[in-house]
Amino acid sequence: MLSFIGILVVVQVLLLVLSVKFVPQGFEFTVERFGRYTHTLRPGLNLIWPIIDRVGRKINMMENVLDVPEQKVITRDNAMVRVSGVAFYQVLEAEKASYEVTNLEFAILNLLMTNIRTVMGSMDLDELLSRRDEINGRLLAVVDEATNPWGVKLTRVEIMDISPPSDLVDAMARQMKAEREKRAVILDAEGDKQAAILRAEGLKQSEILRAEGLREAAFREAEARERQAQAEAEAVRMVSESLARGDLNALNYFIAEKYVDSIIQLAGAPNQKVLMMPMESSALLGSLGGIAELLNGAGSLRTADAGRATRGALPAGSGASEVSGSRGSGGAGPAAPGSGSPWSSGGPTHRSLPPSGPQS
Q1: pTM of the predicted protein model
Q2: Which residues make beta-bridge pairs with 46?
Q3: Which of 185, 193, 302, 323 has the CA that lies 20 to 30 A from 256?
């Protein structure tokens, strides 16, 4: 009896052990009852019916890495390249990954390799080398859609290496060098063009400014000549008025000034080594004497004007007695013409310059 109870206890313990299942984190176990899928065991402690239930598949629910081996791909322009890559996937539904496909990793790998040949074969070599992001996106979209019925999510597909043949690499290097040299020549030509344009613009601006300067100088010179002509016209008018009044001193002064200026220009000529004075050089001295006499006459005229103003301010009797007293003291009456008195002939005495030419 005791042995039977012991055997019963051992059987119960054995059944308890068989019914308890521990599922680690990151995994899920499928349960099969008489060979048919019933449910999935989550991570942690789980109980099943012993003998009739058993664990079918142990599925890794974490993200997995799948290496895509190197393979040859022929591009659209008939270039042979070697391509390798890597893919990342994660199982989302354990029952589909267990019972919808026989070998999950092998199926994903073959699907990736065939789609790599399809996508890259529709592109040129230049596009293949410069559009890796586009290739990765197209592969990810196609393979993820194909693996969706298997309960798998393809998270990323990356092309690791694209290796063209060595002769094709040399040709590409020569092409790249020629393209860079072409760009360098174009940039040099553009630089020369811009420099020529800037130089032409600078010359244009300088010519415009120079023309404006010449125009302004011409305006100023014309204005100066106009003012000089006005001054000379005014001088001629004053000389004409003096001649009309019978005063020759202004004419003598005008002629002497021109004569002196001519002598100064003759003496200051840079190509003149010997100064030849004209025979009528003595006329220069006479002209200078005429200028001095003109200045003395102008001083006497101012003195006479001051005296007239003083006599006009005195009373009438005193002015008469002064005149009579002066006549009595002189005893000779009015001054004779040519005596040098500023009151002779009612005004200043006019003297002519000495005749030109040598004097004996």
Answers
A1: 0.50
A2: 21
A3: 302
